[in-house]
Amino acid sequence: MASLIEIKNLKKYYQVPAGTLHAVDDVSFSIGERETVGLVGESGCGKSTIGRTILRLVPHTSGQVFYQGEDILTYSPRQMIKLRRELQIIFQDPYSCLDPRKTIGQIIAEPLVINRKDLSRRQINELVLDLMERGGVSARLYNSYPHELDGGRRQRVGIIRALSLNPKFIVCDEPVSSLDVSIQAQILNLLQTLQESMGLTYLFISHDLSVVRHVSNRVMVMYLGQVMELCEAKELFKNPLHPYTQALLSAVPIAEYRETPRKRILLKGDVPSPINPKPGCRFADRCNYAQELCHVQSPEMRTVSPGHQVCCHFCE
Amino acid sequence: MLKYILKRLLALIPVLLAVSVLVFLMVHMMPGDPAIALAGGEATEEELENIRASYGLDKSLPEQYFTYMNKILHGDLGTSYRTQRPVAQELLIRYPNTMKLACSAIVIAVVGGAGIGILSATKRYTIFDNASMLTALVGISIPEFYLGLMLMLIFCVRLDLLPISGGTGPINMILPAITLSFKPLAQIARMTRSSMLEVMGQDYILAARAQGFSRAKVIFGHALRNSMNTIVTISGIQFGALMGGATIAEKVFGWPGLGDLLITAIRGRDFPVVQSTILAIATCYVLINLGIDILYALINPKIRLG
Description:
- The complex is a heterodimer of chains A (316) and B (306).
- Chain A has helices at 47-54, 77-83, 104-115, 121-134, 151-163, 181-198, 209-215, 233-238, 243-250, 292-296, and strands spanning 3-16, 19-32, 36-40, 62-67, 70-71, 87-90, 169-173, 201-206, 218-223, 226-232, 301-305, 308-311.
- Chain A is α/β, with parallel strands linked by helices and 316 residues long.
- In chain A, helix 3 (104-115) crosses helix 4.
């Protein structure tokens, strides 16, 4: 699979009064064309920041993001505006992602109006209605305002808006986290159908492991701004190597009866602060297998088996 | 919409009635006797009695109130004790002056305040932002009379650029308008900034950028539009206050407006003038509020009037 996006040593630091906050710390990975890479991790581990930095919605600290072979982090604002139509984002909160002053029709038409000067008002209108139909939003909502819609419909509108420019790559930033379960399934199915029909590539950010398992080809596990493990989704759920991944997976609730309860791996303590992190492995303080080396030296990302990368000194 | 406006206008009646009672009571509770104020300190008791009788001041309070209201309902705002001219006539001369001043002050305040607020929000934590917010804080805290006198000192006395007072022309208006605009400008700037910052933290701003909108278009097309509610609210409140509250500045600059009229009337215990002027100011204030509510509905689809 040819990679569409390749991220190399991406860093995003924030200067805060207490020091330097390492939101994203030296992250490298690639996403193949038409692939879905799931990105999981706890709140505040830098998942969203990665998505936003790749799209240059927040400035990066260092690193490179190659899109079709070109480093887009060096693009001028003008070049970037042109590129925007190919890179889109879907947001978590369907209540704050739509401009409350604009009608659904206007919201969906907006990207077309500014990016497709070649289209007439009428063509845009037709396109919008067509998109609404494909995204499962009834045409009678064309003149409604966002506050008149429920969460699921709003999220559909957010998705349609992202799709209106025919993008290649979409960052799905927890698109279903704030929806209830039945709606979640609808939206996930919609995203998958659209991916197939439009040939989309997704970076799918979520903290819900079962959702990620359902949609992703590969999964990346993040902890405190760093990638802990990256491999095929099936492999990850069958054979998790990193102690953090193992602990995460053991916490996924499963709705079935078992004679002997599953063994839970309990982590001690809280996630340490991402401000001025200590040297060594980020996870060392909470790891059940941590040794002296772990507190001194940061592990490198290693390939332990084809397509399976782990950031740990000891995993085999 | 029309029904709503009508309903709101009807609701004005009880509000204004309450205001009239309050004002009437306050005026009559003021220390000082209008008869003495009119006749001077050396008048005999008999002369005072005569004056009281001729103005109906010897009657009971409820009786006086009903006489006053009865007249007002018939379009008679009373006659000034001092000038013997109808209050309505006085108001007609003074109102446009105050209006002129209030309007120019609010224009300066809204344009300047919103401008500074937007710039501050987009250049958050820069020197410009810090400096303008500090100035705004000073602007909110500084008393009008002090600011007015300082401006006078600088521009009229030291630089000799503008006339000190007298006249109601545009040149005479510059200093009082600036003085009056300062506090609302500062407040509008602060509110605009915080409202803009709140809106700019929303995902739809990020979405707009992701769609390829330029920075300017995001700020004016999306962020400002959604901050409008706050700006309109605060501007409306400030405008209402200006319409009735320009008293001190008018006095300092000798501007013949409502505030100036009111102060003079209070000093002279000129009851009809005080009552009717305050009633006029109150009416104006309520009407401005109604105007703002209607404006709200026009700029915010979430609000449906009804």
